[in-house]
Amino acid sequence: MNPVTDEIEEPGRPSKSQRKRDMVALQDMGAELVMLNADQLAQIELPERLFEAIVDAQRIHDFEGRRRQMQFIGKLMREIDPAPIRARLDLWNGVARESTVQQRLVERWRERLLADDAELTLFLAEYPGCDSQHLRSLIASIKRDRALNRTPKNYRELFRALRDIVAGKN
Question: Most buried in the list 30, 34, 102, 106, measured by CB within 10 Å?
């Protein structure tokens, strides 16, 4: 009997390579946990020992010491169910990504509205029910300030108004 082929043919047990990939994935998740702030860590239910290891890793600045601490965190992660932790991290990452996309959309609308008067009609068609008079006055104020070579006072206010309108639609 060949021990190598016996190990591969055993159906209920993952291969050594798969076990190694799983361990690396748990270490990577541990690294994500180390990057969180104290408030975020408090929102995740972690065993006491794992929580302390994460806090210790946040304090370690020596490369080798931090690397070893990360391996230790990976080892502790193997003892728990990582699914709830992964779900929480994915939720936070998704919310951050969605927020960034929305912010960029608002920035593009602001620049389009300031560049061309016809864009306001398109904006009002896409977001009906918003205060068009307020938007017109903000845009006019910004254009007037730019024409007089002054700092536009309402630039941020326009962004806030557009953000509230776009967020209300989503």
Answer: 30
17-56 per-position pLDDT tens digit? 988 888 888 888 888 899 988 888 888 888 999 999 999 9
Q: What is the amino acid identity at position 36?
A: L
Architecture of the domain whose range is 3-80: Orthogonal Bundle (1.10)
Tokens of 35: 């990057």
Q: Are 44 and 88 in contact (CB under 8 A)?
A: yes
Q: Judge contact between 41 and 28, C-beta under 8 A.
A: no
Among candidate residues 28, 58, 27, 24, the one with its CA nearest the CA of residue 41 = 58
19: closest CA among 37, 30, 32, 7?
7
